[in-house]
Specification:
The protein is of the alpha/beta class. It is 19% helix and 31% strand. The strands form 5 sheets. Strands 1, 4, 5, 6, 8, 9, 10, 11 and 12 form a 9-stranded mixed β-sheet that branches. Strands 15, 16, 18, 19, 21, 22, 24 and 26 form an 8-stranded parallel β-sheet that branches. A 6-stranded parallel β-sheet has the order 14-17-20-23-25-27, with no helix packed on it. Helix 2 links the parallel strand 4 and strand 5.
């Protein structure tokens, strides 16, 4: 089998972070989401991976390289415009050929990996298998309606009145017959070739078999800031903690705290699950649960809880606890205790700021 990762898209729902970074490269628990997807596919025994890229192709290619660090071979497949998931499959046919493959959205995080699914599909004669998950807001996703036997009756993309709460979670398995489907369908009202329409085409042709798999664990589509924070919390729960950096005798860290190499915890309290990145310094501060601090960060005389802080940032002397926040690269947050007291901002487009 081969792997196909979709890593295009502008990530507009994550502005302003994605003005300067591909959304798939934003880290969850200090590892870019795209890297986690590559590892899941590799751990399922797949060594050849195609990555469909869009406007952020140079950044994706620079970060991933040829895939050798994961023991896989990566081929890049440029998509001229965001013309739909089925279009991404269509342009990937030269890479995929006649091989069975798994298609994975590069901004999705799922519990438990996909090895059992890959083994199940690889040993079957099914033409497709799709992963479904019960969600509270199915109108925002492709939705599956099952018949009385638990088989797929129909698929609908972002319906106003969903027939079920089973969403397609962005993991699909296909054989080469999917190319018949993507070549047979027409663009939707959005001007895109929808993967739901292509799978529906397979369902309606009785010679092909499409099987649903309902995922019972957690799954996050990291498209919005709140989703990123949720995904970060879930992944931190699964990490085996270790301390490779320095923790001084005046600091207290919990049992579920990871301190990466060359990080320093000085006169601070850190409660897990939390991860502190390389070359980061935490000084006279409190870091609460579900916080990921990336590399080369300085946090001094401040408190954070359930946050993601990206590399090169500095947070100092902030008297109010910062929580439920995404803080981008090379951000400076400081509070001046002098008088007269005033607020000074230099905020980019689409920034969001809340003041207590």
């Amino acid at each position: 089998m081969k792997g196909l990762i979709l890593a295009g898209g502008k990530g507009t729902r994550l502005y302003p972070l994605t003005y300067t970074r591909a959304k798939q490269l934003i880290p969850v628990a200090n590892k870019p989401v795209l890297f986690r997807v590559i590892e899941m596919i590799r751990d399922a025994g797949i060594k050849e991976i195609g990555i469909v890229t869009g406007d952020t192709a140079p950044e994706i290619e620079a970060a991933v390289g040829d895939g050798s660090r994961w023991g896989v071979r990566v081929t890049y497949i440029p998509q001229e415009a965001p013309l739909g998931l089925a279009h991404a499959v269509k342009i990937s046919e030269p890479f995929l050929g006649k091989d069975r493959f798994v298609m994975f959205l590069g901004d999705n995080v799922i519990q438990g990996g996909i090895s059992p699914l890959i083994e199940q599909f690889a040993s079957s004669d099914w033409n497709s298998q799709i992963v479904l998950k019960e969600v509270p807001d199915p109108q925002h996703f492709g939705v599956a309606e099952l018949d009385e036997n638990g088989q797929i009756r129909r698929l609908i993309e972002k319906p106003k009145n969903p027939p079920s709460n089973l969403a397609l979670v962005g993991i699909y398995m296909f054989d080469h017959h999917i190319f018949e489907a993507v070549n047979a369908i027409k663009p939707s009202w959005r001007g895109e070739l929808e993967i739901t329409d292509a799978i529906q085409w397979l369902v309606e042709h009785e010679e092909y078999r499409v099987y649903p798999y309902i995922h019972k664990g957690w799954w996050i589509d990291t498209g919005k800031p709140t989703d990123m924070l949720d995904a970060n919390s879930y992944v931190l729960e699964e990490i085996t903690p270790h301390v490779s950096g320095e923790v001084d005798e005046d600091s207290l860290i919990g049992p579920r705290v990871t301190v990466e190499e060359s990080a320093q915890i000085i006169n601070s309290v850190v409660r897990g699950p939390t991860i502190i990145g390389k070359n980061t310094r935490i000084i006279n501060s409190f870091i609460g649960p579900y916080t990921s601090v990336y590399y080369d960060v300085v946090i001094e005389n401040s408190e954070l809880e359930r946050c993601i802080v990206l590399e090169g940032s500095r947070i100092a002397n902030v008297q109010t606890r910062i929580q439920d926040s995404l803080i981008g690269r090379h951000v400076t947050i400081e509070q001046d205790g002098g008088k007269p007291r005033a607020l000074k901002f230099n905020l980019g487009d689409y920034s969001q700021l809340w003041l207590p």
